[in-house]
Write a structure and sequence with these properties.
By secondary structure, this protein is an alpha+beta fold. Among the domains are: 213 residues, no CATH class; 42 residues. The protein is 51% helix and 11% strand. It contains 15 helices and twelve strands. Strand 2 and strand 3 form a beta hairpin. Keywords: Viral genome packaging, Viral release from host cell. It is found in: Virion. It comes from Rhizobium oryzihabitans.
Length: 568
């Protein structure tokens, strides 16, 4: 069975390599000119300390890329700000108290679990790759109950997507030391060593003590279509994760395992049609200007050098004589020979100032391609978040509109699958609160409440504010106009748009109970007040009734008039 699996994996890997070939030359250029070290193509283990900046003279593109990477982290998945929450598609249901509390507690547990993992570090590196190459890949796993992300280096993985354009396949090259291979694949649960899965090279290295020699291993992650769901083993999980040694025994797998759900997170900046890899990204947009910037910096340096230390011509008479062009030095020449002194070989009429101005213009275009000023503004945001989001929208509206499609794609290809995977993993670990009965069989929704998403939604919050201000103005002349507005719903909509913590806004059923209790208290108070006002009247009535009764017993109307003090 292993030989059939191995053969299929190797055939598909060859096809995936062919699909990616068209992108590799471009990725190599992006790596060389903008962020060296982020792309590794070679089949052999490359030296990590080799010179990498040989094509970079001006590091402005590298700095713009760094700012954008940090801005993406702060704007989409900030560790210090809420950026996603679980919700329901039914707006009325999510306002129900128990449901609202469950969603809030689940969201908080997910964020707490992410905070103690390495996922945020992986995302920060991943944004750098997405800005540079158009996509990144992260493999989600668990380790002793903790969430853990694996970041394959660009050039060391190959992707494929489903019919819904969701990346569900990743083949990757994994470089492991001999010790790592033996520890994971050779040592058995009982402590025995099973060398049948590895090559003799690994066995020999182990025997010689060469534990740190590198071994090339491949890992295939993809949907498992031929599984038996009734068999609860790793070999029958919905997603396979199989390992084999490159150059190892041809019919043997190192490991056949799997995942319960898709562990691949591979967001793309922008794609065309059915393409798997991104067609556009800031790095690709900026590359022509990056190349021009490096050329112009070289030209500027050469121009300055020609002016400060020009090429000269000298008479042959000075060839064997002591001469110097250093400041303060003296070179003796015959005054009768007018050509005996040094002179410029040629004049360089270059305006360094004009060249510097053009360099600045090119540099600005690179910053705009990476949205550097927008991401810098996001990274430096302080104070009350909704206010800052509004100010950010006012200052950077045009760039936010340009980023809109990208933010939406990140929601569908990064935030939703990541939050869904975390929720499922927490459920597997029994770390979620008990759901209310109302959520039984109900599909949950994942909402993007990141800074960038809120900035996109700021248009709706601004319209709410302007509308309520308008209603307030006209209600001065017509108080009945206030009846047209559902202020409770306005509060809910505004709170959702700015990402307010759900526990701050009361659920609709709780509000109804508060108002019902208040109305009951008001009715009780009104009844008590009316009773206190009626007490004297009741007392007088009682006294009158008693008086009539006594009069009947003592003599009729004449006696009544007498007792009232009226003369008969």
């Amino acid at each position: 069975m292993d030989d059939a699996i191995r053969s299929r994996h190797e055939r598909r890997l060859a096809a995936l390599k062919k699909e990616r070939n068209d992108y590799e030359a471009l990725w190599q250029e992006l790596n060389d000119f903008i962020a060296p070290g982020r792309y590794r193509k070679g089949d052999a283990k490359e030296t990590k300390g080799r010179p990498q900046n040989s094509r970079i003279v001006d590091n402005s593109p590298l700095l713009a890329h760094r700012v954008a990477r940090s801005g993406m982290q702060a704007g989409l998945t900030s560790p210090t700000r809420p950026w996603m929450r679980y919700s329901t598609f039914d707006d009325d249901m999510k306002e129900f108290g128990p449901v609202k509390n469950y969603l809030y507690q689940s969201t908080r547990k997910a964020r707490d679990k992410l905070a103690v993992s390495n996922i945020y570090n992986c995302l920060h590196s991943g944004y750098g790759d997405e800005l540079l190459f158009g996509q990144f890949c992260m493999i989600l796993t668990t380790n002793k109950g903790a969430l853990h992300g694996i970041m394959p280096v660009a050039g060391q993985y190959w992707l494929a997507a489903s019919g819904q354009q969701r990346v569900d396949t990743c083949y990757r090259r994994v470089w492991m030391t001999v010790e790592q291979v033996v520890g994971r694949f050779v040592v058995q649960a009982n402590g025995d060593m099973d060398w049948s899965k590895t090559s003799t090279t690994i066995k020999n290295c182990w025997d010689k003590g060469s534990y740190d020699d590198w071994v090339e291993v491949f890992n295939a992650i993809e949907p498992r279509h031929d599984r038996n769901p009734n068999i609860p083993t790793k070999a029958h999980k919905p997603f396979m994760s199989n390992y084999w040694e490159a150059g190892g025994p041809s019919k043997v797998m190192l490991e056949i395992s799997g995942f319960d759900r898709n562990p691949i997170i591979a967001p793309r900046w922008d794609i065309v049609g059915e393409d798997v890899y991104a067609a556009y990204c800031p790095g690709m947009d900026a590359l022509p200007d990056v190349k021009m910037l490096q050329k112009e910096q070289i030209w500027k340096g050469q121009g300055i050098e020609h002016q400060v230390k020009p090429a000269v011509v000298a008479p042959t008479a000075l060839r064997n004589k002591r001469n110097s062009s250093l400041p303060g030095s003296v070179t003796y020449v015959d005054e009768t020979n007018q050509n005996a002194a040094y002179r410029r070989a040629f004049d360089v009429n270059i305006s360094v100032g004009d060249l510097a101005a053009d360099i600045k213009d090119v540099d600005n275009r690179i910053n705009r391609a990476f949205f550097a000023d927008l991401f810098m503004a996001i990274s430096n945001m302080q104070g009350i978040q909704p206010k800052n989001v509004y100010e950010l929208t006012q200052r950077k509206e045009e760039q936010l509109q340009q980023l809109g499609p990208t933010v939406e794609r990140q929601h569908h290809e990064l935030i939703m699958p990541l939050a869904d995977w975390v929720f499922g993993t927490l459920d597997d670990l029994n770390e979620l609160p008990e759901p209310p009965q109302e959520l039984e069989g109900v599909e949950l929704k994942i909402e993007n409440i990141s800074t960038l998403a809120q900035a996109q939604l700021a248009v709706s919050t601004g319209s709410i504010e302007r509308f309520l201000a308008f209603v307030g103005n006209i209600s001065g002349g017509n108080a009945q106009a206030m009846d047209k507005v559902d202020f409770d719903q306005a509060i809910d909509e505004y709170g959702d748009a700015v990402g307010v913590v759900p526990t701050i806004v009361r659920a609709d059923d709780e509000v109804r109970k508060i108002r019902a209790d208040r109305a009951e208290q008001q009715r009780a108070a009104a009844s008590a007040e009316m009773a206190s006002k009626m007490a004297p009247v009741v007392k007088q009535g009682a006294e009158a009734a008693q008086l009539l009764a006594e009069t009947d017993e003592t003599g009729g109307p004449a006696a009544l008039l007498s007792r009232l003090g009226v003369a008969g």
